[in-house]
Amino acid sequence: MFLLAFAVILISMNQAYVVPQENSEIEFQHFQEVRSDMVSVRSSILTAGQADVSQFATVQMGTNYPPRIFAVNPPPASGTIQTSDSYDIVITNGSDTETISTRFIQYRNGYNNLEVGSMWYENSILYLDETQDGGRVIYEDQQLVTDGNTLRITALQNEFDQSGTGRATLELYPTEAVTADDIPTGDVDITVPTRLTADQYWGDAMQGQSFYDGVTEDDYETGIHGLEFSIDTTQDSNELQVNTVGIRSEPDEGPAKQNVGSGSNDDSTTPPSDGVRGFTSVNAGNLNKNDSPDNQFFTFTVNQTLPDGETVTINLDDTQNANPFVSDDIDYSSASLQNNDASFDRGYAAVSIIYTADGDIPAGTQIEIEVTNVRYPNGNLDTFSVSFERSDGTTEVDTFSDG
Questions:
Q1: Residue 11 lies in a domain
Q2: 3-class secondary structure per residue, the chain
Q3: Are 61 and 207 within one domain?
Q4: For a tag site, which of 163, 298, 366, 386 has the least CB within 10 Å?
Q5: Structural domain span for residue 126
Q6: Per-chain mean pLDDT for the chain
Q7: Same domain for 164 and 32?
Q8: Structural domains in the chain (count)
Q9: pLDDT the model gives residue 161
Q10: Are residues 246 and 283 in the same domain?
Q11: What percent of the chain has pLDDT over 90?
């Protein structure tokens, strides 16, 4: 009886103290991963707008907890990534006015133990909103004004809202919502919506920038302020660049002209891309039934040159904790790669293969990556999805199974 009571006490203490602590560590690891994902989202938005190339960024929205025999887990920690309401960027010279809609992006976690605020992207900034705890943490600073002579605005358009524990893919396309002829010239006043006040961020970030005119608080609505700029585009040294990026929606009439706007360089453009960079084919090899461990092959063929240093990420997250039974997962924890240009990125309930181009990879080249010592249950697995994502282009998906 004493031993039974002692066992009950140990189990209770494990449930009350150990499980929350371990789950908090899992949530913190996921928080670090999603922060990295959101940095990539920011980079992809700016690249799509300024380099006129479609981008595909992914965010691991949530995470799962490991199965426990003598303890109970809370529900999986799901997350949500969504766009805000639409607000207008206003550009006027007193006689002509142009309005361009834009949105913010919010990532909101659903952690059961870790208390942390939402991540926000707006106006090239990525930050953690910890207002209830006294402030915000800036992860990536503004890129609106960086050289003192150019005001560079990238508007984000269309709605996006996805929740869950899996990966969300944000398809980012350069759009033709505004052209150079639409932008007023001369002495131009510009108002850009922002969630940040001068005291919270912009005052310090814009210190010494001649274009900056301050922030009008609650200019759009409560909590949405007006970031003010003035620029004389008739001066040779000044330039206003405006780009638009659409989430999920391809442009109706092809990619937008690079950096439309006014100033001394208003006739210069970046040569448009000759099509979306992607794949001619992708393949995730099946595993042999009743033969664990096994070797597995992943192949892809690029449809345009993969430049030196660019990557292809083969995402295997769907194989990790894909359903409630751990015995039904594919286990890559002891696997190794037989391609010197590829590496594993392993985390809890997440794993990917990252191939890095060592020199330019010409269009039509097939890359094969062999994964050795893959462990899995013998036979009758579900079908698993594998995404192949180019860092300079698009994403394709293939499936594989056991048997």
A1: no
A2: CHHHHHHHHHHHHHHHHHHHHHHHHHHHHHHHHHHHHHHHHHHHHHHHHHHCCCEEEEEECCECCCCCCCCCCCCCECEEEEECCCEEEEEECCCCEEEEEECCEEEEECCCCCCCCEEEEECCEEEEEEHHHCEEEEEECCCCECCCCEEEEEEEECCCEEEECCEEEEEEEECCCCCHHHCCCCEEEEEEEECCCHHHHHHHHCCCCCCEEEEEEEEEECCEEEEEEEEECCCCCCEEEEEEEEECCCCCCCCCCCCEEEECCCCCCCCCCCCCCCEEEEEECCECCCCCCEEEEEEEEECCCECCCCEEEEECHHHCCCCCCHHHCCECCCCEECCCCEEEEEECCEEEEEEECCCCECCCCEEEEEEEEEECCCCCCCCEEEEEEECCCCEEEEEECEC
A3: yes
A4: 366
A5: 20-66+74-258
A6: 82
A7: yes
A8: 2
A9: 92
A10: no
A11: 36
Q: What is the pLDDT of residues 208-239, one digit of tens each?
A: 888 999 999 999 999 999 999 999 988 866 78
The answer to whether 129 and 136 are in contact (CB under 8 A) is yes
Burial of 229 (0-12, 13-18, 19+ CB in 10 A): buried
> Please, are residues 103 and 84 in contact by the beta-carbon 8 Å criterion?
yes
Q: Are residues 286 and 254 in the same domain?
A: no
Q: Return the higher-pLDDT residue of 119 and 249.
A: 119
**Which token pair is 60?**
């691991």
Global pTM? 0.63
Give percent above pLDDT 70 in the chain: 80
Give the residue-averaged pLDDT of 171-181.
75
Residues 381 and 253 in one domain: no
Do 248 and 113 reside in the same domain of the chain? yes
Identity of the amino acid at 356 = T
d(CA 275, CA 189): 36
- Per-residue pLDDT tens for 258-277? 444 444 333 333 333 444 67
**Which tops the pLDDT comparison, 394 or 263?**
394
